[in-house]
Structure prediction request, 266 residues.
Amino acid sequence: MKKKIVLVIIIIILLILDIFLFFNFIYRHYKNKHFLEKYDISLANNINNNEFKINKILLYSSASGINKNNNFQKSNWLLDIYEYTDIAIFFEKPKTLSTSNTIKELNISNIKYNVASDKYEPALYYLDGNNFGVNTITENFKIDNILEYTVLNFDNKDNSIMYNTPVFFSDLSNPITLKFSNTLLKNYSIENTEKLVFDGSLLTKTPLVLENLEASISFDVEITNFLNEKYVSNINIKIPIENSNETIFNGKILETKKVNLKFLKQ
Prediction:
């Protein structure tokens, strides 16, 4: 008799334990589902309700060299040869300006490079927009960690403000302009038997092939509006070195990318 009572008690305890575990599983599943739904809705709202969007990126790729030989009577050029890409990033300009869709602060950060060799020397520079497509590099404009812009509250229609310092207009009327540079060869000797053209065709004087020129760069564009709301968008750019008609060895590559890059509210 006692054995039967003990067995019944054990069965009841096991049933109660099973019921508890079952309802605990249901509760946790519902709780997690509810949390994920709230997170997804919140994330979607952060993306869809923000006021900022990048709609176009213009890329100009070519190459050039820095002459290390000051004696032009010598039989050889001595060059540091680099490829470069000028980058112009355009915001979609709002139809009506407000405190939520105009920019108070802007910076570039979290810069990362992916190049074909660890012997190369990639770098990113602020670019004066008036020098877009020009092969000169201003070392003072090199970005080490972060580039902070001076944001102005007018559109510069009279061109009273020069672009020789990082300037951006709060109404999104000018693009972000940057220069990516990748030094490929240092102190490279080229016989001085003909006039050199300092564009992508210079690369044909070297043993470099297209695969050696493959590169990409990524960075964050961080903005703050006049409500002190912060947004960020990660930009990832594959450096154009060829298209359906030509390669950088022909001199240059110009590419216009229509994009729809939104910003995530922080």
About this structure: The radius of gyration is 29 Å.
